[in-house]
What does this fold into?
Amino acid sequence: MNFNALIFLMFLKCGNIIGTIDSEVQCVGKQYKNVSLAAYFPSPQDDDDKTYRDMKGKKLRSLQEYLNDRSDFVSLAMDERLGIAYGTKVCIPELNKYFGYYLNFEVRDNGTDLLGMGYRRADIFVRTEMDSYDSIVNKKVTLIFVK
Ligand SMILES: *[C@@H]1O[C@H](CO)[C@@H](O)[C@H](O)[C@H]1NC(C)=O
Ligand SMILES: *[C@@H]1O[C@H](CO)[C@@H](O)[C@H](O)[C@H]1NC(C)=O
It folds into this structure.
């Protein structure tokens, strides 16, 4: 291996460690384990301007927008009956680990599918139907309600 490649590897490794520390620092709060994640996506026929809206009529923000730095949160939908305050910040350590940095989820939506599910289920907004099949958004995770 040449010198440049070695430096590059060290750089990657270092970025990884910083990302991990960063995500652990910010993930402190009440935990719910074994939460089933699912994903939902815009259906073009529902909306003329193709911008899906959350429970307060604000634009939903997808995981992909967050990953592309076009949003500072990802919209998360949960059971309306839990009475979670709009905009409550949630950390999902399994996803932070997978993507290598901190993802800021915010509870901003609800849904008929979620009624009565309590803390057993949370739905992430994604860009397209294809994105919704990704196994990373269809697994059991831990939700941490950030203090
Ligand atoms: C997680 O949830 C499933 C049902 O969705 C249940 O069968 C399993 O026992 C739960 N595991 C834990 C550790 O609570
Ligand atoms: C979602 O939230 C809106 C606004 O609070 C409410 O009008 C609607 O009934 C809720 N829908 C469900 C399925 O909980």
